[in-house]
UniProtKB/TrEMBL annotation, chains A, B:
It comes from Rhodobacter flavimaris. Keywords: DNA-binding, Transcription, Transcription regulation. This is Lrp/AsnC family transcriptional regulator. InterPro entries: ArsR-like_HTH, AsnC-type_HTH_dom, Dimeric_a/b-barrel, Tscrpt_reg_AsnC-like, Tscrpt_reg_AsnC/Lrp_C, Tscrpt_reg_HTH_AsnC-type_CS, WH-like_DNA-bd_sf, WH_DNA-bd_sf. Residues 4-65 form the HTH asnC-type domain. The keyword Heme does not apply. It comes from the Bacteria.
Length: 152, 152
DNA sequence: CTTGAAAAGAACTGCCT
DNA sequence: AGGCAGTTCTTTTCAAG
C-alpha cells in the first residue's frame, strides 16, 4: 500500500472519467510537465492501484435494456453445492456477475436481458433450474447513479 | 442499433479485457490490417456501443477491503422523498453506486469501506440517518466473478 | 477490403535543477 | 520530487490498388 497526495488523486479522478486522456494533456491541466505526470501514472500502475484500463460498453446500444439483480438463497449448502452453483451460474450468458455474499442471501447475480419477456425466459429456464437454488428475489434497475472518482 | 459480426465481437472481447492494446496489434491477432481494425473500432465508437474507456482501480490496494450491498426500503414514498433520498445517498463518499430499483426494495447502494468496523460507522452514522429510510438489508461480498466480454 | 507512406502525437529515456 | 530535450512508438489520415 502506498500514500497518495492530492495530485495522485486528481490523476485517478481524471483517468476514471476518461482513460484515453494523454499524460501530456493531463499534465497541462494539473500544472505538471508530461514526463512528471507520466512518472506518477507509472508509479500508480506499479503499486497495483491502477489495475488496468477497461472498455465501457453501452448495453442499451446492443439491445439489452433490462438489468436485474437477483438475490438467491440456496436450499442445500454443502461445500460441493457452492461450487456446483457457481459453475452453473457463471455458464449462463445473461449472467454478468456472480457474487458470493454474506447476509440474507447466499449469492447475488447481475442479469442483463433484452426486455422483461427475455428476462422471464432466463429466470424460468436458466436461473430457477440452477443446482440447489432456493428462495429467489429480484430487483429490476430503474436508474443508476455512480460516483466516478476513486474512493476515500 | 447496429448489427455486429464475429470480428466486431472479437474486438469488443479483446478490448474488454485490456483497452490498452493497439489497433495494429489486435489486427495482427485477428488477421486484419491495422487501418481495417482501426475503422471497425471507430465504427463501434460512433455507434455508441463503445461508450468509453475507464480506469480499473483496485480498491484493496487503496486499503478498502470491504464491499457491501445494501437493500433499502423507504418508509415514506413521495416524489419529494425519492429525490431527497437520492441526493443524500449520493453525497456519502463511501457510497459508490445508487440504484433506484423495482422489487422488494426501493434502492440498492454499493458501499466501499476499509473494514467491517469502518462499514459499521458508515451504516450507523450515514446510511441509517438518510431521509425516509425504512428497512435496511446488507450483503457483504465474499468473492466476485464477472464475465469479461460483451453481452449476448 | 488491402498495402504503403506520411504527419501528428503520445510514450518513454537520459540528463539536469 | 520536477523540467527539458530528444528518440521511439502508435495513432490517424492520406493515396492508390
Amino acid at each position: 500500500m502506498i500514500a497518495l497526495d492530492d495530485t495522485d488523486r486528481a490523476i485517478l479522478r481524471a483517468l476514471s472519467a476518461d482513460a484515453t486522456v494523454s499524460a501530456g494533456a493531463m499534465g497541462r491541466q494539473l500544472g505538471l510537465s508530461q514526463p512528471a505526470c507520466w512518472r506518477r501514472i507509472k508509479r500508480l500502475q506499479d503499486a497495483g492501484i491502477l489495475a488496468g484500463r477497461r472498455l465501457l460498453i453501452d448495453p442499451a446500444a446492443l439491445g439489452f435494456g433490462v438489468t436485474v439483480f437477483l438475490g438467491i438463497k440456496l436450499a442445500t449448502k454443502g461445500r460441493v453445492s457452492l461450487e456446483d452453483f457457481e459453475r452453473a451460474a457463471t455458464a449462463i450468458p445473461e449472467v454478468q456477475v456472480v457474487q458470493h455474499v454474506l447476509g440474507l442471501f447466499d449469492y447475488r447475480l447481475k442479469v442483463r436481458a433484452r426486455d422483461i419477456a427475455d428476462f422471464e425466459r432466463v429466470l424460468r429456464r436458466r436461473v430457477m433450474t440452477l443446482p440447489g437454488v432456493g428462495q429467489v428475489e429480484a430487483n429490476v434497475v430503474l436508474s443508476e447513479e455512480r460516483r466516478p472518482g476513486p474512493l476515500g
